[in-house]
Amino acid sequence: MHRRLLVVLVPLAVMLVAALGVPLSVTVAEREVQETYVDRLNDVGRFASLAETALSTGRTEALQLELARYHELYGIPVAVIDTSGTVLLGPRDAYREAARSEPGMGPIVTAALAGARPEPSGDWAPWAGSALVVAEPVGRDSEVVGAIVTISDLSKTRGRIMLRWAQLAGLGLLPLVALMAVAWPVSAWVLRPVRELDAASSRISQGDLTIRADAEAGPAELRRLAESFNTMMDAVENAVQRQRAFVSDASHQLRNPLTSLRLAVESLEPHLRAAGDGRQVYDVAVDELKAMQRLLNSLQASARMESIRTASPVDLDAVLATRVERWRALTATAGQTLAVDVPPGLRLLEPTGGLGSILDELISNALRLSDARVVEVTARAVPAGGGVVTIAVRDDGQGIEASERAQALRRFWRSPRHQNVSGTGLGLAICADLVGAAGGELRLEDGLPRPDGSGYGFAAVVALPVAESSGAPA
After folding, report:
1. Which residues, if any, are the signal sequence (predicted)?
2. What pairs with residue 133 in β-bridges?
């Protein structure tokens, strides 16, 4: 996260360096070129005065030698031209070669022959390649007899400009490096409590209510946030513990009087007349007491299993090895057929209470509630989403309507068609909660096609994460 902070700070620093460095760089370039231009202007002014005297007297030998010496010393071709543009004095070949590569010097020479001092030519940017052309008229006003023209290569000047710019860029990077050196540890110090708080929130979302954030590190604002977070988690953990304790204690305390009540009711059986109405009332009372006992047992088991929120790796083959034969016996007793299609080697995270208990509940629902002929158990590994193993229990019975599937995962909900079937309405809800706590999902879908072609049966699909390594619990 501190990298994100640097992503904001670094561009700001770059903009600051650019805002300060660009005008300074432009000033350096202008000063270098201006110095070069002033030097050439002084040179052509001196040569123009010498050429005026030499041309008027006809003594051009000394000027010719000086122009050649100037070119030899500085590498700058300088020539005296007449009004037609013909070179009168100077290194003719060097001048003509340099003039051919400067197409923009024509207006400058024309202006000089007209008696004016033209502006310098060329693009002075360091990445440009044009030369500096400076011309000076020889003579005055209408008595101009020629012009002095110099063609200066600016490669050395541009090299000095680039060197200065590189030095300025290096100096400009120093504040940026200093800013990064300071911002990195500061951002790490500021954002470390945020990362720890994020990690704590992730652990809490997985069911660990004992985790707390570090309230001693970071800025004062983040320390106050961590303290508030810990206070909130203390309240949540206490509320959850009280709720679980209440359900567990209430279930436990109600079991003894309920058992006594059942014994008292069953003790009345010898005193009932076989043909009287008391027998029917007695049967209803015993059935209701049994249902209440099952409900209390389910509540107590739910509270006990919800207090544990860890998942552990398990081999699906090992789970099925202890269950399949019993499932076959149960389905055979009910006149049904069990089909198992599970590939070997599947390893997944087992929810609290055991994966076998969840599959037992799903098989029991298929036997009791669906009126099915065939029950099928399949498993597949799905690589998408980080790796998931799906276990499906399908049947070809009646099941429940598609509109009732969302309600079927709620506690104590029962389909109107199953009111006379033994059950508490807690089985699927507890299974869905335990599967979700292990990082998986329990969903209800269409099952196998019904034999009469009237639709599809019922299917419960358990999707659990793949266990990547054998051994340690997740």
Report:
1. none
2. 151
Closest CA to 427 of 417, 416, 415, 413: 413
Residues 6+ apart with CB under 8 A from 342: 316, 317, 320, 377, 378, 379, 391
Find the DSSP H helices in 114-154. none
Helix (H) or strand (E) holding 405: helix 405-408
Angle at 294 between CA 293 and CA 296, to 5 degrees: 65
Between helices 278-306 and 427-437, what is the axis angle to 10°?
0
Greater confidence (47 vs 261) lies with: 47
pLDDT of 97 over the 80 cut = yes
d(CA 473, CA 249): 30
User: Can you tell me the mean pLDDT for 254-258?
Assistant: 74
17 confidence band (pLDDT: 50, 70, 90): very low
Q: Are 441 and 450 in contact (CB under 8 A)?
A: no
Which amino acid type is present at position 469?
S
On the CB side of 302, how many CA atoms lie within 13 Å of its CA?
A: 24
Question: Are residues 295 and 427 in contact, defined by beta-carbon separation less than 8 angstroms?
Answer: no
SS3 463: strand
Any idea which residue has 């006990």 for tokens?
Answer: 304
Does 341 score more than 80 pLDDT? yes
Select the more confidently predicted residue: 409 or 421.
409
What is the band of 164 on the pLDDT scale with cuts at 50, 70, 90? confident
**Which of 382, 308, 307, 383 lies closest to 350 in space, CA to CA?**
308
Query: pLDDT tens-digit profile of 265-320?
Result: 778 777 777 666 777 777 778 777 776 776 666 666 666 655 555 667 888 888 88
Instruction: Measure the CA–CA gap between 340 and 251, rounded to whole angstroms.
Output: 37
- The torsion angles phi and psi of 77, rounded to 5 degrees, stand at -70, 130
Which residue would you say has higher pLDDT here, 426 or 454?
Answer: 454
Question: Could you tell me the pLDDT band of residue 378, with boundaries at 50, 70 and 90?
Answer: very high
Q: Return the biggest CA–CA distance within the chain.
A: 161
**Which helix (H) or strand (E) is 251 found in, with range?**
helix 220-266
Q: 3-class secondary structure for 181-212?
A: HHHHHHHHHHHHHHHHHHHHHHHHHCCCCCCC
Q: Could you give the residue ranges of the DSSP H alpha helices within 75-206?
A: 92-100, 106-113, 155-205
Distances (CA, A) of 417 to 299, 371, 411: 23, 12, 17
158 backbone dihedrals φ, ψ, rounded to 5°: -65, -35
Phi then psi for residue 276, to 5 deg, are: -85, 170
The backbone torsions φ and ψ at residue 401, rounded to the nearest 5 degrees and listed phi first, read: -70, 155
Name the DSSP class of 353: T
